[in-house]
Each structure stands twice: as C-alpha cells, then as structure tokens.
Model the fold of this input.
Amino acid sequence: MSFNNHNYLLIFSLCILYVESADPSAQLCNQNSNTTNPEITKNIDSILTTLVQATSKSGYIITSSGSGKSQVFGLAQCRQDVPNEECSTCVQTAAKEIKTICPDRVDARIWYEYCWIRYNTENFLGQVDTGYGTFYYNVENVTDPKTFNNALGTLMSRINKLASAPGNKGNAKDQTKLSDFVTLYALSQCTQDLSQLSCQQCLAIAVGNFPTYCDRKKGCRIIYSSCYVRYELYPFYFPLDKTLALQSSLMTNYLSVIKNP
Done:
C-alpha cells in the first residue's frame, strides 16, 4: 500500500472482530460542526426519536426536523438482511451512542454491523458520500490469490448490479464456491436515498479499494456514508448459523484504516 497521499489521514489499529460486536464499526464526529444552538439540539433529539421509531418498524427512514438554519436532516437504515428484532436493538443503541460520542455536533455518523445513523444540518440526502471511510481487512492471505480475485470480482460485480436494481432497496448478497470445502460470501448495501446510478457509483468506488487495501486478504469490509461492501470466507449475513459464523470469525485479526478527506 502507498501512503504518499497527504489528503488522507490513515490510522491503523489491530483489533479483534466478533460477529455481534457491541462497539461501533465506525464513527464520525465532524470537529468543525460544533453547535451551542438550543434549537438545533432540540431538532437533533427529535430526529433521533423519529429515526429509532420508524427504522425499528421499516428498516429505513429519511426525515428532517425544524426549518431554516436550524433544520436537521437525518437518515437511519438497517442492513436489509437483518431481522426486525436485531434492527430495532441496533438503531436504539446507535441513537444512544451517537449523542454520547458526538455531543454538540451537527454532523454526526455512526455505523454498527447491522445498522447506521446519520444527521446533519446540511442536506446530504440523495448524494453519494465517499469522503470519509473505514476499511477493515483480514491480515491473513488466501493461498491462491489469482483464483480468489477472479471469483471475488465476478461475485462483487453480480451483487453490485443486483443491489442497484429497482426493487432491491440497495441491497444484495450472494456466495460462490471456491472449492468443495471453501465458500466466499459477499454483501453490498447502499443507503436507500440514492438513485440507481448513484448506488452503482458508490459501490464501484467501494470495490475499487479492494486492490489497495484488501488484495489477497481473506476478508474485507469497506464502510462509506452512502454504501457498504463486505466479503468473508464464512457466513456473516442472515439467515445464518450463528454458531458456525462465530466459530469462523472469533480471534481473527483485522487491521482497520480510517480515511478522512
């Protein structure tokens, strides 16, 4: 990997990832978005209440609260494969944590494995946002990178097209057999406010990071504000055998890279 691009701040951390982690996968508290305006704070609280209530029922919502310079825009979404109960639990946790992690910020975002929440006084809805990203990659390499990369490229191309297709709510998942004993699993997800073309654009940018950050790696996830892609050599999306998934992922070392514009 090259680290000569000074436009990005790269932060590395060695961590243990679990299938159902209580910690956020990523978070952003814009340091340039402090506010002491009580009206904005009130609108943020209103947004979070609405996001939790609506997302727990439907899995997705975009909304706004207030008007003028105090108006706040919000989005919450669960991964489309996640059952309602897990979705509801996730968004409740996210709404609570984002206020704790990002106090007095008008631009705040938090991602968990099953859901994510975002709000801002600037209208971000319908716009592709890949300025901030968090990337995780497995430190272990595959044994046959050429075969693996070919299979991964074909799989990601297929599910990215499905995710951006009308009626699929920006979501697609699939798997492919690499051998009799090894299966590759992948998932793509856009925020549902994006158009078909914008979803395609975001996913293409996300997958475009694979050669740089995830080349030959057994697992990888790219988290942007507008989309998310992930692949693993174990089942991680629903419906799944939780015992099998947990056994496959426990004590697997990942490195994380945080990219700030």
In short: The first helix runs from residue 38 to 58. Residues 167 and 196 are 10 Å apart (CA to CA). The chain has two domains: 12-20+130-259, 26-120.
